[in-house]
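Hi,

Apologies if this is the wrong queue. I'm a grad student, and the batch job for DUF4838 domain-containing protein from Candidatus Eisenbergiella merdavium produced an output file that my downstream script rejects. I'm not sure whether the problem is my script or the file. Here is the sequence I used:
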Amino acid sequence: MEGNAAVFREKELRKYLKKMDPKGWEEADICLLTSQREGLRERIQIDVRAGKGTIAGNGEGALLLGIYRFLYHLGCRFIRPGEDGERIPRLRREEWTVICKEEADFPHRGAVIEGADSLEHVLDYIDWLPKIGMNSFFTQFTDFRLFFERYYSHIHNPGREPEEIDDFRYRQMEGKVYEHIRVRGLRHHAVGHGWTSECLGIPGRDWYPVDEEPSEELRGLLAQVDGKRGFFQRVPAETNLCYSNPAARKRLEDYVLRYLKEHPSVDYLHVWLADAPHSFCECEACRKKTPSDWYVVLLNELDERLTEEGLDTRIVFLLYYDLLWPPITERFRNKKRFTMMFAPITRSFESSFGEAGEASAGEYELNVTPIPGSIQEMLGLLRGWQRVFDGDSFDFDYYQGRAHYGDPGYMRISKVIDKDISALENIGLGGILSCQELRAFFPTALPDYVLGMRLWDSGKTYSEIREEYLRAAFGERWELCSAYLDGVSEGAPVDYWYHFCQGKDLEAAQRAAGIAERAEEFERRIREERLGGEDVCVRLSWFYLQYHAAYTRLWMRTVEARAKGEDGEAASRWEELTEYLCANERMLERAFDVYRLLDLGKTAGFGRAER
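Support response: The file is valid. Your script probably expects a header line. Output copied below for reference.
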């Protein structure tokens, strides 16, 4: 266990001072000061001259950010999790001069656990977050063992022995995750999924169907859809309650209250409804209000109960699927309790918020109106919600949850992140939480780096951040890497990954073949020229890039075959890609979530995760 937060901060500072000046670091005299946190944005003040002075922050998390900003201004770069992802310059103590005042441009800057993760992957990622300016981590579900089970089961890789995660082991892992969040002063977001089943005593820790039927007692609390009350499409976590029924609302509110009392460290508790679209109750009583109106009724009742219990936890409500349409009659009674989360899960990442404009999605008809797929329609609905709720808010987005696999170079998705951040103030949102794989550094961690750096300092340009990152990651040959990754990103035919296109497209096939050839040549060049040098971080970056070039070649040959209409050849190519990734998973797993790619490949029509 890492223990006291103040002790942790002091140890962190000493660790990096010693790395910069192994001989003179002990002569430094830097005082760390905290003040009471006011507002949601961190403020830091650094006044260090020749290794002597102060670093101050308005809160414990802000102070740790101040330490990392001090190191940043001295040239330290943290390009991916782990010590081998750090570039720490050698600087004499006399050169340690930083004088600045900074304030975070956006209050919400963080990531959400997804994919398949080992405990070490999660802890390393949490440790990295404040080093790139982030302040939040979100543990989904009341019990997030699903993400550990995906990794330790090794369901996709027959070459690895599965490990069981029993309850005792999970609780130990959970405790270490919570401790890592706490000592870094990160804002802990929690749960979101599963409330509507967990409150009935039915596990809602995943999205798998079940064979059993609900008891008659519980059936009356569930949503009536197509004339039937039961588990929606047999999935408890995708089943809504009958929200016009006070007993159903009370069951959910009781469970939320119990959870909060058992988890006092949670700062932002996400109270979401069921996950499936068009799954709301159609009974006569529920039809008297829209789903969003019933949602506000429930949230107001929950606020009253939390207030009675003296709990000041922030409650996060979401705009998602049917709940994108704003309420018509109900209004929040205590806006300070709530944070609004815009979750445009059906968006495309071919354009950004700033390029989209707004459009009408039409009036909502219960479980009938199509869920909007365009950013324009979703932004129009967001404006409607903002007329009802003008409080704290952020964007919950999916840049590296799936879309990044369709952009092998990660350069296009990095630009979309940058443009989205540029548009945040105009669309009235206070930051971004990224629902994503925690191992998305293959070929680089540029998307994460752009997200953290731009949300902290929106005045910094994408070009500046990109060069800063690539120069630190790849050393003096960074421009060679940059040109290669740009070409890979610009040419990738993403529609085949998004499942937008499944037919023949010879132009797309030609582009995929061109990228495959380029990747093969680049892989050969890295190997023959022995790119990497002596620095551990730079050498590892080129190591990953060499393997990534081979992966890109195999991946684009798969897409090429699909675009030619050669489905049998595409299946063979996908199998070859799968075997390559499974054979090399141990070497690549800190940078790449192999499980997630292979699992999502099923949705995209390429293959199976289970083998």
